[in-house]
């Protein structure tokens, strides 16, 4: 599709150039700054000064003021002109000789320095010599199959290299040490420093005129077969798709992002970004097309013209006005290299926003959303399309110049209610996504108030979720809107959130006094009834279940399972809409619940997770089922998260004994060292596991598992830790044994002390219980020294005071 990228403007017309010389024609041109040089077929060089003028209406014209002309003294045409501004020299090819002349007075240098035997020549725009006061010139010599490299100074020339080619060269371009050559039958890349060459593709120079043009660092543009403009790097590869130009192309120029081609009848403009033909300009009898420092000049035998590029921003705006969004975005991205960074960023954001509104008007909401977000649209631009959504106190005014052509949603949809409904649904979704991002800083009140109005109007289930969470809804606007739509419960929540509990209570009284009598008689809320009421409001239901499970710690299976399912559904939903922040938060809650709770239905949750990417959650559930091998396989082989595998062993063995913990770590080590799947990554993970958790392993078993090829140095941290743990355990055991022996010794001492005191029993002693004398030597003695018959001690119920004595372990017989 066409784009007006260039305008053809006359620069030097026939009358000013040739006057009455009918047989004189333009053979070559050169432009350096404002200096324009023209070589003619009668061996003259003309020097003009170009002045660009812009009228009040933006029209560009050029005035060429002739400075002087010079006859070179030959009977042949001037073939080529190249300016070397650093030397103030103009290189002129005429009669197979390159002459150095002064750029200002066109006089040859006094030394008469020249290069002889040149068919054609070019300058190296990426010179390998660091001398700023010389230029590198590459010529195709009159010698067969010969290329020569020269250093050209202000008043002398010096040959530095002569290179032989496999075929006769027809055209050449140079970049650094690389020559891009059009030979008789093919194009090649030749490094004249190393002598290495790379064939590009075949081409018959006898049938068509070859084109070899340097377009950038180490990249060339070539006229390929089949009417293709081929791009090639010095490595012999193409990093851009070819452009399709005329079979009869005779010249090419570059004005990024466009390639300009010339044939017998037309000038064609092709985009380097999408390779499409963008503009065609009628131009007959043209035979010269060249670009000079961003200026594209085209010439016939009788005149010189300049292709003036239209500003890229204007081209982009023309494309957007035609609703050609993709082309506009491609051109905008390509314009980055031509525009200062800060200016480009401002321009590109605006273009993205304009493109977003074009897609929005076409009800292409996914594309519009992505462009709005990338372009960092002030979301109030979108809200302002919807009547009455912005708060009355909002100071927002639309961008100028406007981003779109619509007054409001009614004009955009032309009153189509179905389209309006779709647009409102999109705005609800978009505002819900962006309200928690940095994009909304400074106008959260406008966004939340608009979102509340949309929810209330659509009777959306998220209205209550919005009001029970942090929000910035403006009270005055929101209260009137909720009352208008008879959302009294939401109105009460709004008042409560804003600290107006009296107003909230009044709304609540109005709600509850209108309830059925049996509902009013209920004195407390049953959790199951509350959950039934909240089923439509997922966020509120989640918060209520968190209250029951996490705060009240109710150990009821259905609450724990329901909360886990809601977390899981929220995670899967966040994945589909690519909401990273919400996904991370909800997934953390889900993992915490799965790890800490023992009251949910494990198999039920596991069935729901199967087939998803929630591998970590699946590993946790397998751990709950004591299927640790499956859990570790997921963590090691599917997630390749070795840190998570170690953490799994730690939390799974919490409140377990040492053998259980050792068994888990040994299982993980076995997974790492499994010869079927073992690799360098797993081996290093095994080494890290041993070295970081030496205390959790039975060293003797580990030494039997590890490969014999492992060095002692590799496992030195593990061996050191294992030795320390072994020595520590041994010493702690010795300390415990010593303490036990000391305690036993204390008890023995007390026993000896008790035995060392003599006890005298005579017939005069009386039993403290029955007050009868002892008839045999068997008796029971209490710590307080009292003695009783053995049968009296057995009948403790006869004397309640004996309970204290008999419960004392120090009593002896």
From TrEMBL:
List UniProt keywords, sorted A-Z. Answer: Cytoplasm, Protein transport, Transport
GO BP, one example? endosomal vesicle fusion
Primary subcellular site in the record, as a coarse category: cytoplasm
CHCR repeats: which residues? 515-677
Localization of this protein: Cytoplasm
Classification via InterPro entries: Clathrin_H-chain/VPS_repeat, CNH_dom, Vam6/VPS39/TRAP1, VPS39/TGF_beta_rcpt-assoc_1, VPS39/TGFA1_Znf
**Does the record's keyword annotation contain Cytoplasm?**
yes
Domain (CNH) spans 23-296
Q: Per the record, what is one GO cellular component?
A: cytoplasm
Keyword Membrane in the entry? The reply is no
Matches recorded under Pfam families: CNH, Vps39_1, zf-Vps39_C
- Stated name of the protein: Transforming growth factor beta receptor associated protein 1
- Organism of origin: Pelusios castaneus
């Amino acid at each position: 599709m066409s784009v007006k990228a260039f305008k053809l403007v006359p620069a030097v017309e026939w009358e000013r150039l040739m006057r009455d010389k009918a047989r004189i024609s333009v053979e070559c041109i050169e432009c350096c700054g404002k200096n324009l040089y023209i070589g003619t077929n009668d061996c003259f060089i003309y020097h003009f000064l170009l002045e660009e003028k812009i009228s009040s209406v933006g029209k560009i014209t050029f005035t060429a003021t002739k400075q002087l002309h010079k006859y070179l003294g030959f009977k042949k045409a001037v073939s080529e002109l190249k300016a070397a501004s650093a030397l103030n020299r103009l290189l002129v090819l005429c009669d197979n000789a390159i002459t150095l002349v002064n750029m200002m007075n066109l006089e040859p240098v006094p030394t008469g320095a020249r290069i002889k035997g040149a068919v054609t020549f070019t300058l190296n725009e990426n010179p390998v010599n660091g001398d700023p006061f010389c230029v590198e010139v590459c010529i195709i010599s009159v010698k067969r199959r010969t290329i020569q490299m020269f250093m050209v100074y202000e008043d002398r020339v010096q040959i530095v290299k002569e290179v032989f080619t496999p075929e006769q060269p027809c055209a050449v371009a140079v970049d650094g040490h690389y020559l891009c050559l059009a030979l008789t039958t093919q194009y090649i890349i030749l490094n004249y420093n190393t002598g290495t060459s790379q064939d590009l593709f075949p081409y018959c120079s006898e049938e068509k005129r070859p084109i070899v043009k340097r377009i950038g660092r180490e990249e060339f543009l070539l006229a390929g077969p089949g009417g293709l403009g081929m791009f090639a790097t010095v490595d012999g590869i193409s990093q851009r798709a070819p452009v399709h130009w005329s079979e009869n192309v005779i010249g090419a120029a570059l004005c990024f992002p466009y390639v300009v081609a010339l044939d017998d009848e037309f000038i064609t403009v092709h985009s380097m970004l999408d390779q499409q033909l963008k503009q065609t300009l009628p131009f007959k009898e043209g035979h010269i097309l060249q670009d000079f420092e961003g200026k594209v000049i085209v010439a016939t035998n009788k005149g010189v013209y300049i292709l003036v590029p239209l500003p890229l921003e204007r081209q982009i705006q023309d494309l957007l006005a035609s609703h050609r969004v993709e082309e506009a975005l491609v051109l905008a991205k390509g314009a980055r290299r031509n525009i200062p960074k800060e200016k480009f960023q401002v321009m590109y954001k605006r273009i993205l926003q304009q493109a977003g509104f074009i897609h929005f008007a076409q009800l292409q909401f996914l594309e519009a959303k992505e462009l709005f977000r990338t372009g960092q649209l002030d979301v109030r631009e979108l809200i302002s399309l919807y009547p009455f959504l912005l708060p009355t106190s909002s100071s927002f005014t639309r961008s100028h110049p406007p981003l779109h052509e619509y007054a409001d949603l009614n004009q955009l949809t032309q009153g189509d209610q179905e389209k309006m409904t779709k647009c409102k649904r999109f705005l609800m979704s978009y505002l819900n996504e962006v309200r928690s991002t940095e994009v909304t800083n400074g106008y959260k009140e406008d966004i939340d108030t608009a979102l509340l109005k949309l929810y209330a109007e659509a009777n959306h289930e998220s209205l209550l979720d919005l009001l029970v969470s942090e929000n910035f809804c403006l009270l005055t606007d929101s209260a009137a809107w909720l009352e208008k739509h008879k959302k009294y419960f939401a109105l009460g929540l709004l008042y409560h959130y804003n600290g107006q509990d009296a107003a909230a209570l009044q709304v609540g009284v109005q709600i509850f006094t209108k309830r059925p009598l049996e509902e009013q008689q209920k004195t407390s809320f049953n959790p199951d009834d509350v959950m039934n009421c909240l089923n439509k409001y997922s966020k509120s239901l989640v918060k209520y279940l968190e209250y029951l499970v996490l705060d009240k710690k109710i150990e009821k299976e259905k609450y724990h399972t329901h909360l886990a399912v809601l977390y899981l559904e929220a995670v899967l939903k966040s994945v589909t809409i690519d909401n990273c922040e919400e996904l991370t938060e909800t997934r953390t809650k889900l993992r915490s619940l799965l790890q800490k709770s023992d009251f949910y239905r494990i198999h039920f949750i596991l069935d729901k997770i199967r087939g998803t990417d929630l591998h970590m959650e699946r590993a946790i559930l397998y751990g709950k089922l004591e299927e640790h091998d499956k859990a570790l396989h997921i963590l090691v082989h599917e997630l390749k998260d070795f840190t998570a595998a170690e953490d799994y062993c730690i939390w799974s063995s919490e409140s377990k004994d040492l053998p259980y913990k050792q068994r888990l770590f040994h299982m993980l080590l076995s997974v790492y060292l499994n010869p079927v799947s073992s690799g360098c990554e797993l081996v290093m993970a095994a080494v890290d596991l041993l070295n970081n958790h030496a205390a959790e392993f039975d060293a003797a078993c580990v030494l039997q598992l590890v490969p014999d090829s492992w060095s002692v140095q590799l496992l030195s941290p593990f061996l050191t830790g294992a030795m320390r743990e072994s020595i520590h355990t041994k010493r702690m055991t010795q300390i415990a044994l010593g303490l036990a022996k000391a305690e036993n010794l204390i008890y023995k001492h007390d026993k000896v002390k008790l035995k060392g005191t003599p006890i005298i029993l005579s017939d005069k002693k009386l039993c403290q219980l029955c007050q009868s004398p002892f008839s045999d030597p068997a008796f029971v003695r209490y710590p307080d020294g009292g003695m009783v018959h053995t049968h009296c001690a057995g009948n403790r119920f006869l004397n309640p005071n004996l309970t204290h004595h008999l419960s004392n372990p120090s009593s002896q017989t």
